Amino acid sequence: MKTEQLYEIFKQYPNITTDSRNVPENSIFFALKGNNFDGNKFAETALEKGAKFAVISDKNYAELENTILVKNSLQTLQELAKFNRNELNTKIFAITGSNGKTTTKELINRILSKKYKTFSTPGNFNNHIGLPLSLLSITKEIEIAVIEMGANHLGEIDELCNIALPDMGLITNIGRAHLEGFGSLENLIDTKLGLFRAIKNKNGKFLLNTNDENLSEKIQNYPNIINYGKNETSIVKCVEQNSNIYLNLKVLINNSTYNVNTKLIGSYNTDNILAAITTGIINDVPINDIITAIEEYEPSNNRSQLLKTKNNTLILDMYNANPTSMKAAILNFAEIDLPKKILFIGDMLELGENEVKEHQKIINLINEQNFEFVFIVGKIFGKCNNIKQHFHFDNIQEFTKWLGFNSLKNYSILIKASNGTGLKKCVEYL
User: Fold this and answer.
1) Mean pLDDT for the stretch of residues 196-205
2) pTM for the model
3) Helix or strand or coil: residue 256?
4) At what angle do helices 185-192 and 156-164 cross, to 10 degrees?
5) Domain of residue 12, CATH code
6) Do residues 410 and 338 both lie within one domain?
7) 25 contacts: CB under 8 Å, gap ≥ 6
8) Which of 213-217, 235-239, 393-397 has the lowest mean pLDDT?
């Protein structure tokens, strides 16, 4: 079946699902296939649960009623998403980077929604499956869609941009994240720069974080660059910041100074805020509305989130972790004015052959601080020197067992780790 024909079906049944456990009535089920799963096996279940059609790639299931046989279900999903994107008048604002993508996306969406009908990537739907699903959720009344793009292998941002065709966008920063899939920092940088190349090809607007040297060195000689950060040509600059728990900024916008009092934790969020302000300005959102949107935003997704339990004060930053974000979180925690500080950290995943070296740097950094206690979870950290100076557990099961017998009260606790470590499970013990 041609994409145009499938799109006509999609217009009648615009709900898409790839999960047979969650099948909206009159939806289209895409049977995706991976190394460890085969969605074709669940096509019949999806149809029984209310899917109107099932897009399959295995002819053994083609006898089922209302199945659409294609060569590759994932490729078909991506082609359908691109077709829908081209049918819309919606402007696409794309965001990628090593750290801060989701926070920046949320801030930008809050700001743009003060003036426009907007859509933003739900949750962390930012990969080769999530991005097409996001694009297929955009309806014709949406004026600007804020789309997050993640990458864990060489060339992935180019692939995602070929589907989303962004009109505007930014790279938050370049750090040492997911190096296992890239092989080198240079490969990672080149992959992230795929967003810049795509926007340049469309003669769109690209927002440049001049505080990031890797980006400033690579991105030059393009007339539609809008700078933010320390560069003297930046339209938004931070002239003062105070991170006494919550981050408060004084920013310079078009020669006028404004105070921005946020509910975000960590000075590392400064660049994310500057990016969001700049996005609002170039899209003609009034400055007072921009500041209000930022000050109203309260994180609730384990990113720079403050949580007070009956026993302790927690700073939750455990959706993702890499050497850059881990260092920033630890240094910020060391600086802010909180009593009786304890650090919970877990392994940083997908760092490749340098993983022990990068974890050792974090241990060395911790040893330079003055935390009351440090609890470390993960086998990679266990390979580091001086680990015996702290409480170490190989896995979250060992750690939660210890917490079950040892009550912690009246502490300020930073919890920082890659999501895959499961460290968020310790919150219920605190």
Assistant:
1) 95
2) 0.89
3) strand
4) 10
5) 3.40.1390.10
6) yes
7) 50
8) 213-217
